[in-house]
From TrEMBL, chains A, B, C, D:
UniProt keyword list: DNA-binding, Transcription, Transcription regulation
SUPFAM superfamilies membership: Homeodomain-like, Tetracyclin repressor-like, C-terminal domain
DNA-binding region residue numbers: 31-50
Name listed for the protein in its UniProt record: TetR family transcriptional regulator
PANTHER family tied to this protein: HTH-TYPE TRANSCRIPTIONAL REGULATOR BETI, HTH-TYPE TRANSCRIPTIONAL REGULATOR RUTR
Domain HTH tetR-type: 8-68
Database matches in InterPro entries: DNA-bd_HTH_TetR-type_CS, Homeodomain-like_sf, HTH-type_TetR-like_transc_reg, HTH_TetR, Tet_transcr_reg_TetR-rel_C_sf
GO molecular function (one): DNA-binding transcription factor activity
DNA sequence: CATGAATGAGCGTTCATTCAT
DNA sequence: AATGAATGAACGCTCATTCAT
């Protein structure tokens, strides 16, 4: 009787090992040996479970995205169905109220992934797909407030603000007043939605 | 008669070589040999003019910052002294109206630098110093509109939006509607400033 | 009641797996995992049935030799007992009329084995033993025509030509006119045997 | 004043280092570290002068071929212009009278290259090109004796015999009677040329 | 100032072999 | 018999850095 497969568990360990090492040393400097050590495994095993280092990164992208989607879904679900603005705020809170402050290594990892997306086409594809999905979600929520025509640009703006807070909190942590991110971005959202609604009404 | 020093010219070439290579391959993968080739120089000369690879990066950070400061100064100077809101918009335009679209390699380089700032303390210090200076400038402009008390958080929010647009346009270029960045961020600014002014007035 | 042993069948599968992989990738690059996959077995099983990779190769050498011996025996048996020259030609046909053209992977495998024989003493021993047996067979046939004294050198020459055709057809396949090998080597044999017979008669 | 380039000298050392190590351990087992050691150089320098290990092999193929061409040219040049058969024999002597016996590592290297040609397309191309050039030379000499029509098949046969002697002397050295190779192949040549001439005359 | 050869540590990856099940 | 996860050494290759000229 063969030993029961523990492949998924091992892949998990390795992906989390990459996140840990990468958030401290970046992707290039996260050597496979260190990833293995962080995962408590032998170096050879990493390549038994992943065809190459990039594959680990791609799985990590997907996992971080899934975590975020869950957080968003949970928060948005709590909002009353007719409260369209509340859902937009819930979306933003999901990213900023806990994300940026609560899990610095995930934020650092995400910023690192953004930079890797610039030069690794496969990473870029994965990154774009994740961002596109998030954006479409947000765009839908925004459209309920201001209509479809203006939703795209507004949601990109709000999402950019979120990403920008990630970058600043990871790369220049001393400069972001603690706890201000969610509040400020929601204010931006309110301003954008008001303006757009007013125009729409005109 | 000693030949006139060309040190500064050489350093310039090398720094621009790094920017070029780095925007295509990232910092770690930008080998000194490639930097030298991009600069039209021999590899050995790079270490004659810089003590190590990181020093080139630090100079690049400062140069990109200086370029941005000049663009900002030029635009803000054109605004009527009493038009406080106009100056905020000029600041944002300086970063987004030309920056993100017009010089993709500088944007890619800046995003790469943000990620390197996460793990290289010296890079982080340089990055923070640059961001702090920009933020203080923006904060001053914002304070003229809404007062000192609220200026800090608002300016960080606007600056985050700018950084976020940089990241999105470098890492997921298909997703940012072309030309929308400056307009949207200025809308955000208007909303924030209106809200804050109203509160202040209250 | 113990299940009947399938050891021999498994060893067969593995040896043929090695031949398949080796003819495409060479011996060193034929990984045990690939051999197992080609054999339809699990990697661990390979080392259950063989102590190491080299042992598979040694068995393969013996099997390819056995195949060749059978082909030779079959063809030679068809020749009239008194037709000594006919037997020499039958021997050569056994190697070249079908071998080189009909089973490219066996030819590639044999050429690969020749090269491995240069550095692995155990492989060299196995290879030498096989070649010696073939040579002794051929030498016997040649001796019936020209006498024992000259048979050794002549049979080595003919055998060398056979091996040379193997190499050329495996390594530079475009250069050997299709179907010419058996004919040309038999012409060589005829020339050698004529000359030697004439000298012998003198 | 820069140091004068010694690139060609270094490349020579490295190529000869590969030949030495490869003739003892095969191509795959000839590690870059060992090649460097055999060449008296540091490991990193190998990749400074060659883009990869295969490039060293390709240069070696060309060098071994050049050596052989020179030996052939020297011997053939000594033969009287009208002595067509003598030139064929000189060609064969160039490969077998000294080659096989005198430089075992070159022979072992060549046999190794033949085997590598089976799986590395670039090696195959280089190998085929070398063999084609040699064959065309021999074919021209043979054609002077028997006419163009029969020359191709005969020259391939003789060349195969030469290659076969290389293989046997490298891989099963005990089985080739010392000094017999050149003599036997020349006998084969004589037989082939006689037969073909007779037919041609018919 | 400038060259480009040289160094050696470290990287991602492969792999024969072992072993718990 | 059989599985496939696990190991760790070795490989080809890259690279920041040094240095003789």
């Amino acid at each position: 009787m063969p030993r029961p497969s523990n492949t998924e568990e091992r892949r998990q360990q390795i992906v989390l090992g990459l996140l840990r090492v990468m958030s401290e040393r970046g992707y290039e400097r996260a050597s496979v040996n260190e990833i293995a050590k962080a995962a408590g495994l032998s170096p050879g095993l990493v390549h038994y479970h992943f065809s190459d280092k990039q594959e680990i990164l791609l799985v990590l992208v997907e996992q971080l995205a899934a975590r975020a989607r869950e957080r968003v879904a949970r928060r948005v679900a709590r909002i009353a169905p007719e409260d369209a603005r509340g859902k937009v705020e819930a979306f933003l809170d999901a990213f900023l109220a806990t994300g940026a402050d609560a899990d610095p290594s995930a934020v650092a990892g995400w910023v690192t992934i953004s930079a890797e997306a610039i030069r690794q086409p496969e990473v870029r594809d994965a990154y774009e797909q994740v961002v596109r999905a998030d954006l479409e979600h947000l765009e839908g929520l925004v459209a309920s407030v201001v209509g479809k025509r203006r939703a795209r640009a507004l949601s990109v703006g709000l999402f950019a603000a979120v990403q920008g807070y990630f970058v600043l909190s990871a790369s220049a942590p001393g400069l972001v007043p603690s706890g201000s991110a969610a509040h400020t971005v929601k204010q931006m959202a309110a301003g954008l939605l008001d303006t757009a609604t007013a125009k729409e009404g005109a």
